[in-house]
Amino acid sequence: METTVEGIESLLQKKTLLAVLLFISSEAIFFGCLISAYVYYASSSPNGPNAQKVLDPLKTGFYTACLLSSSVTVYFAERAQRKGKPGISLWLAGTMLLGAVFLYGEMQEYRKLLNENVTVSRNLFGSTYYTLTGFHALHVTVGIILLGTMLVISLKKKMHKPQQSALECISYYWHFVDVVWVAVFSVVYLWSTR
After folding, report:
1. What are the start-end ranges of the H helices in 43-123?
2. What is the largest CA-CA distance in the chain?
3. Of 12, 23, 31, 138, which shows the fewest CB atoms inside 10 Å?
4. DSSP state, residue 187
5. pLDDT tens-digit profile of 83-140?
6. 77 close to 167: Cβ distance less than 8 angstroms
7. Please, what is the angle between helix 57-83 and helix 88-115, to 10°?
8. Are the C-beta atoms of residues 26 and 154 closer than 8 Å to each other?
9. pTM: predicted TM-score of the whole model, two decimal places
């Protein structure tokens, strides 16, 4: 049986996508544990700061809208790349910008909380809040770096099959980061502050 270069590339792309999906699944379990810990421990801090006292769901809602909009822009980047249309770089840059705006909002929230003496070591709310949102911010940062790599490649006009597969994998990762934030925002900012 004769193997072709295209057949090998296709098999590698499928294996890469499977590996990314397995990685995302493991990260989903990780975030599930962090959210569960937040729900369990944050409400057991009767003294000191808690979500209801210190978090602002409306302000964070704006930054959440930015992050969720970035799922649309990364979708259009992937779609343009798949159809061979121009605009990949613009869509990738837009996705990165929306992700950066979200991180800016997160850093502003941290600064506000630290000024109010809400720290990791203050109580269980602070510990679980910073751990959960901090790991999510780390994932957003990694996503922006990956998107930046694809942006550089797209600007050099070198989007071949392997890079197209990479953009698909990065897109799945980015959508995952957005879905995780929906869960985090729902639990931390909506449920906890009611």
Report:
1. 51-54, 57-83, 88-115
2. 71
3. 138
4. I
5. 888 889 999 999 999 999 999 999 999 999 999 999 998 888 999 999 999 999 999 9
6. yes
7. 160
8. no
9. 0.90
